[in-house]
Design a protein that fits this description.
The complex is a heterodimer of chains A (245) and B (259). Chain A is 86% helix and 0% strand. Chain A is mainly α. The chains are: A mainly alpha (245), B alpha/beta (259). At the A-B interface, helix 8 and helix 9 of A face strand 6 and helix 2 of B.
């Protein structure tokens, strides 16, 4: 474990060092790549001016609302679809159609319906996150070990007992996988949707700073997104591990 | 001796998946099990012996005939019967005690009773020190001890055991059979035990029901007149060997049922 940590740390350190040194030696043009020290200075700037906070707040709200809705609706819907075959046969085709469609392909329609404010981004996040959640919850229920259900019934379990005490806990790993996959789709959805149609937010800033050649500040925002994505994903992973234990 | 479980002309057919027609799992099975008797059912794989058990458990509906327990026709699972499964059927996210408590929870035993009672039965089956282990951390034999404790904890009148030791190695199997008898001797619940091992059937049973290959029918019910309490030494006696020979002949030589 320590060895793995050491190797990973070394790899990051080497990358950052190369990134700092290469432009100084004239091997690459810092206009295009910036340097870690410049990025740190730029980060201090955007934090002090308050723009980072403002954009992060907008993006985070869109993400949080869309993702919370996706979990709140996707999990129960997926569990229901896994339990009731008729419902599944009924809703499987449209869900699969949406599953196969990149969530961002529908962005223009959402803008048409909801405008360029937060609502259209929330819709993209919701759509992107809810589909993997639904699909994985459904699979989780369908892969519940049959003998467990039979055993519960032999002890006089009611249908509700079977659901609450067997199907729900047994499908929890599937639910968590869905949430983790939905999470990365949600982050992607926020940023890219903001790049296309928005007046603020992290994605919007990345786009603007790119057109203005502010590579250092642009990278601050990119790092913010990847740090957030990484932190959120590993948080879900930790919950998964606790469940699997 | 009063009849506790009566199986009358039980026939169970299943719809064959995808193909037309029906599969006859058991055909016209008749059996009386006296209260407090340990009856074993032996037969080759796929002879429907588990189906008989599922019908008594109320988990499979008879196509024809019926199962009568305590004078009442079985229409579904009941608190008077508890089952032990070949594949253990333990919840992997629950510890040994929590698995044993499962049946108590479902049957709405009073809440403070549940854990204490579950602990008592986990220890009864010899799992002291492993109360808070999950099934994944236990050996096959230990898992089935949990399965047996779970069934005993709900205090059933009838124990239904569906090849409970089928997934265990020969050595563990012998020990488990021996210990099961020890536990059973304490209060002599009516027991129906399905196995494909002739030795196990004779060793455990007051009577052995010998079933034929599919469709499952009862070939013969043989009373086993061996003294109780039995220990594993009984398997070396002439009487035991004679029972084994008789059953093996009934099943036809070269059957996979080993003995």
């Amino acid at each position: 474990m320590d060895k793995r940590l050491a190797i990973s740390t070394a790899s990051i350190a080497v990358f950052i060092a190369a990134w700092e040194v290469a432009p100084r030696l004239g091997l690459v043009d810092p206009f295009f790549t910036s340097r870690p020290t410049q990025v740190i200075v730029a980060a201090a700037d955007v934090v002090r001016s308050g723009t980072l906070l403002r954009d992060a707040a907008v993006s985070l709200s869109e993400f949080a609302i869309g993702f919370a809705l996706a979990v709140a609706i996707g999990v129960p819907l997926g569990l229901l679809l896994g339990t009731f075959e008729t419902l599944r046969l009924l809703l499987d085709p449209p869900i699969m159609a949406v599953y196969a469609t990149p969530q961002l392909a529908l962005l223009p329609i959402f803008v048409l319906w909801l405008g360029i404010g937060m609502s259209s981004k929330i819709a993209v996040v919701f759509l992107g996150a809810s589909i993997p959640i639904i699909v994985n919850c459904m699979a989780g229920v369908r892969h519940v070990d049959r003998p467990l259900v039979v055993a519960a019934r032999s002890f006089c379990a009611t249908r509700l007992d079977v659901f609450a005490r067997v199907i729900l806990p047994a499908s929890l790993p599937g639910v968590m996988i869905g949430i983790r996959l939905g999470l990365s789709r949600a982050v992607l959805g926020v940023v890219v949707a903001e790049m296309y149609v928005s007046q603020d937010g992290v994605g919007n800033q990345i786009m603007r700073l790119g057109s203005a050649f502010h590579v250092d500040r642009l990278l601050v925002y990119v790092l913010l997104v990847s740090t957030f994505g990484l932190a959120a994903t590993s948080a879900v992973r930790r919950i998964e591990e606790r469940i699997a234990r | 001796m009063t009849v506790h479980v009566r199986i009358e002309q039980l026939t169970v057919e299943y719809e064959k998946p995808r193909a037309q027609g029906r599969f006859v799992a058991v055909s016209d099975v008749n059996l009386d099990v006296g209260r407090g008797r340990f009856v074993t059912i032996v037969g080759p794989s796929g002879c429907g012996k588990s189906t008989v058990l599922l019908a008594v458990a109320g988990l499979t509906a008879p196509t024809r005939g019926r199962v009568i327990v305590d004078g009442k026709e079985v229409t579904g699972p009941g608190r008077d019967r508890a089952m032990v499964f070949q594949e253990f059927a333990l919840m992997p996210w629950r510890t040994a005690v929590e698995n044993v408590r499962f049946g108590l929870e479902l049957q709405r035993w009073s809440a403070d009773d549940q854990t204490a009672r579950a602990l008592r039965f986990v220890r009864l089956v010899g799992l002291q020190g492993f109360e808070h282990y999950r099934p994944g951390q236990l050996s096959g034999g230990m898992r089935q001890r949990v399965g047996i404790a779970r069934a005993l904890a709900v205090d059933p009148q009838i124990l239904l055991l569906d090849e409970p030791f089928g997934a265990l190695d020969a050595q563990t199997r012998e020990t488990m059979g021996d210990e099961l008898l020890g536990i059973w001797e304490q209060d002599k619940k009516t027991a129906l035990f399905v196995t494909h091992s002739i030795d196990e059937a004779v060793f455990l049973g007051d009577a052995v029901v010998v079933m034929s290959r599919s469709p499952g029918r009862v070939l013969e019910t043989i009373a086993i007149d061996l003294p109780r309490p039995r220990t594993i030494e009984v398997t070396d006696t002439t009487a035991f060997v004679e029972y084994r020979r008789r059953i093996r002949r009934l099943l036809g030589s070269g059957q996979e049922a080993h003995g």
